[in-house]
Amino acid sequence: MANVSIIFGLLVIPYLIAYLFQFRNLTMAGRIGVCAVFLFTALGHFFKTSDMTAMLPPFIPARRALIYLSGFGNATTAIANTTSIIYLYGFLCNWSWSSGHGGFA
Fold first, then answer.
1. Whether the Cβ atoms of residue 33 and residue 11 lie closer than 8 Å to each other
2. Is the dihedral angle over the CA atoms 53, 4, 36, 28 positive or is it negative?
3. What is the pLDDT of residues 13-29, one digit of tens each?
């Protein structure tokens, strides 16, 4: 039950911070929350490998390697989730790295 509470907190807290401080981009806050959840689950794959190995049936080959591979996939998804929105946001707002604006509005 503690993991469910942690995941819920990781999803909700960035959105609440963005809402309370009146940041304009609530979507990015949601993406940061999802990124935090993916990173949390990736850490679980690397630090609780033996527990996750016990969840898989014995006929699956290379269970430990499969768990590490899925943890790497979770971490990659977390990074891709937040970095892709930066380029999309820049495209939609006609913002470029060389425009001299110094960052997001």
1. yes
2. positive
3. 888 888 887 777 777 78
Low-confidence ranges of the chain (pLDDT < 50): 96-97, 102-105
100 occurs within a structural domain:
no
| Number of domains present in the structure of the chain | 1
**CB neighbour burial string for 18-51, b if at least 16 within 10 angstroms, e if fewer:** beeeeeeeeebbbbbbbbbbbbbbbebbeeeeee
| Domain around 58 | 2-92
Task: Kindly give the interhelix angle for 2-20 and 26-47, rounded to the nearest 10 degrees.
Answer: 160
Neighbours of 55 (CB within 10 A): 8
- 53 domain-assigned: yes
Asked if residue 104 belongs to a domain, the reply is no
- Say whether 3 sits in a helix, a strand or coil: helix
Identity of residue 2: A
Give pLDDT tens digits for 64-77. Answer: 999 999 999 999 88
Lookup: tokens for 99: 């425009």
